[in-house]
Amino acid sequence: MAASMDAAGAASSSSKGPTSADPSMDGPYIQYSMVLDHLIGDKRTVKQLNPAVMGGLPIPPKSDEQKMIERGMESCAFKSLLACVGGFVLGGAFGVFTAGIDTNVGFDPKDPLRTPTAREVLKDMGQRGMSYAKNFAIVGAMFSCTECIIESHRGKSDWKNAVYSGCVTGGAIGFRAGLKAGVLGCGGFAAFSAAIEYYLR
Description:
This protein is mainly α. The chain has helices at 2-40, 51-54, 64-73, 76-101, 118-154, 159-174, 179-200. α4 runs antiparallel to α5 (118-154) and α5 (118-154) packs across α6 (159-174). The longest helix is centred in the N-terminal third of the chain and has 39 residues, at 2-40. The protein starts with a helix and ends with a helix. The relative contact order is 0.07.
């Protein structure tokens, strides 16, 4: 009878063997999921990208003068002035270039057979360059100022600001020649601004 009890105990221990191994087999899967949760899950710790912590040079705090300079550079007046200067330079260069390829530069309409001197040619090129420079400067300042005002009012920086600014600038320039010219100028400048914004963005 003792032999039969030993056999029954051995059978019961052998039957409990596979079931007792299941928790030990499930253990690695639970730990792996916990590791994933800490690496890419909700328990992942977000590290602060501080240059001092990452080994880079620390960024010193900005002084009041630097903040004032940044506010000045971001103002509409500075942007308009910068666009005015850039337009003046670009217009002058464009005017001199067009005068250089024009065969009628320096010729006197009253005496077209007379060959102009170099001084007359340079004077005509300078006058045309100055005229183009003034026009480009006015257009650049108007466009930049209106775009900055519209962007500040809307609180957004997108392509619509350039389109609205182009319409206002073109309309203001064209209204000097009449209502129809103002409408055409508004539409033309708006379409041109939209094309430039689409190409740049």
